[in-house]
Write a structure and sequence with these properties.
alpha+beta, single chain, seven-stranded mixed β-sheet, six-stranded mixed β-sheet
Length: 537
Amino acid sequence: MSLALGPVLRHVGETTAQVWVQTTAAATVSVLGCSARTFEVAGQFFALVPVTGLEPGTAVPYTVEIDGAQVWPQPSSPFPPSLLRTRGADTARSNRIIFGSCRYPKVSDPKLSKELGLDALDVYAARMAHRPADEWPHALLLLGDQVYADELTPQSRTRIAGRRDRHPEWPDDEIVGFEEYVGLYDDSWSDPEVRWLMSTVPTAMIFDDHDVRDDWNTSAAWRDAMRATSWWQDRIRAALASYWVYQHIGNLSPAELAADKDYRRVMAHEGDVWPLLVEIADRADAEADGGEGVRFSFRWDLGDTHLLMIDSRNGRKLDHGQHLMLGEAEFAWIEEQVTAPGRVDHLVLGTSVPWLLPHAIGDLETVNEIAAARGGRRGAFGEWLRQAADLEHWPAFRASFDRLTAMIGAAADGGPATVNVLSGDVHHSYAARADLPGEHAAAVHQLTCSPVHNKLEWYVKPGFRAAWSRGARRFAERWAAQVGAPAKPLSWERLAGPLFGNTIATLELADRHATVFFEQPLTAASLAERARLELTP
């Protein structure tokens, strides 16, 4: 009996914390005297331990026991003790949040490893281990592509090639089954430095396309093409079931878990819960086609900072001619959270795909949405271009872009000093200031950090530098006007970046002051600051 993966510290409140683990067999897992039985998924075992009775504003070292035997910290660990740090009155108005997206795992192949470069999160963890705990971040936000199911490492290819029970119709260059997803998460989260960091920093997560497949839910045409394959149903079930287990449930507070019918059913079930997760996955996947769906968006209250993470992948509506980033019910829920009563010094919105892009790309995406909606050859070419060029961010869903902009504008009048939209996906990092019409009390910014660890393809630098240029902006704006695109409801200005290469970003919030800075790895234990920006006037 042993610990297969974890612990991962997830939602933390004033007196509670959630600790996620994967074990090698059925067991009882204990943390600080609080216990949970594992649940089984297709022969794998998991637990989310609800730790209660903690004191507000404290930092408590913890261990993990499986059936009474200590399994964490590991023997001879070089890292400081893992801590449960609760929210309290003295920490209500300060937060240090690190964020990023697109983290490919470490590989053993020397050539590929050199192309990938140093993992920014790994290096951050190595540096953090030598700093006092009061300098550690209060939260880690992983903004998508935590795993890559369609761009396999050499070790993943070897692992699936060695399976004799693998279905012959499954592609040999992509992950399909749940057990194969288990291998992906193990590759990503078993890195020693990152494993320790995730054990001691509360971690919030949301998926993006590569957690499932490139261009996931780009359009109805994309979904039709995937459904036409013999293996897609197995893939989407495994992808969403593994997301529910590894990422989603830890995003929820104890009260939300207690109210969640799916979680209660899984916890009450005897034996393998795979059939229940298949039903959850099928319901979640049907949302894009007009079904009930599963709300993966969530909210964390970090003292006087409110974090609202938006599901901008699975929540899309693509049926009956619709092309929306979110359906009505989920968007309405998000708007309710933004306007909820209570003191808010800073509002942080997380969305895996950026709200504000380089101007030329944003206009191109809106033009493409108009073109792809037409019939005939032009519409077919527009759809091909949408998928080939990844034209699938908020401006590609123009009605949703406008609604999000209106929501942010209303929030900027509601009391916070800043509204910051955190994103990833686009393999370069930047900060942009939004200029909304009218007078607004809050400063509004788009902060994008990507990738944390991935290759820099040859076309990325020249492509994005051109997209940010004034000439490309003017050309795209004229083109958008010519095809009848509505005028944009705001303007924005790039203040930092574009930065290329592996990057981790830090958002520091103190009282009503906010600062963001971007760092890139220099050595295995040091980072260089590449840009810093004061976000409050």
